[in-house]
């Protein structure tokens, strides 16, 4: 298996005051888990609404070919 896990993302809402709501569609993680990504103090805060878990990790987000790519530098996780 590859070291990097690739996860297909479905965008549920567009940018609304720096808020993006996305749904993870993968069997590697919790299925149908809704997370909220907000930009605050030059960091991205990922909040898991189902588990009420607040993860304060720094991720890199860039847009490429109308897809949202999230790269976690700490875990080397690539989400497409």
In N-to-C order, the SSE pattern is EEEEEEEE
Mean pLDDT: 44
Number of domains: 1
Largest sheet report: 8 strands, mixed
- For the termini, the CA-CA separation is 18 Å
Question: How would you characterize the overall build of this protein?
Answer:
The protein is 0% helix and 56% strand. It has no helices and eight strands. It has strands spanning 6-11, 19-25, 33-40, 43-48, 53-55, 59-64, 67-72, 77-79. Strands 5-4-3-2-1-8-7-6 form an eight-stranded mixed beta sheet, with no helix packed on it. 4% of the residues are buried. It starts with 5 loop residues before the first strand and ends with a strand. It has one domain. A hairpin with a 7-residue loop joins strand 2 and strand 3 (33-40). It is globular.
Structural features:
80 residues, disordered C terminus
Nutshell version of this structure?
The chain is mostly beta strands and about 80 residues long. Helix content is about 0%, strand content about 55%.
What is the strand and helix layout of this fold?
Elements: E1 6-11, E2 19-25, E3 33-40, E4 43-48, E5 53-55, E6 59-64, E7 67-72, E8 77-79
Parallel strand pairs: 1-8
Antiparallel strand pairs: 1-2, 2-3, 3-4, 4-5, 6-7, 7-8
């Amino acid at each position: 298996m590859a070291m990097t896990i690739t996860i297909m993302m479905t965008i549920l809402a567009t940018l609304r005051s720096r808020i993006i709501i996305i749904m993870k569609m993968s069997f590697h993680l919790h299925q149908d888990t809704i997370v909220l990504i907000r930009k605050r103090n030059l960091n991205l805060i990922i909040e898991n609404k189902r588990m009420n878990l607040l993860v304060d990790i720094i991720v890199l987000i860039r847009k490429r070919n109308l897809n949202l790519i999230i790269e976690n530098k700490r875990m080397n996780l690539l989400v497409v």
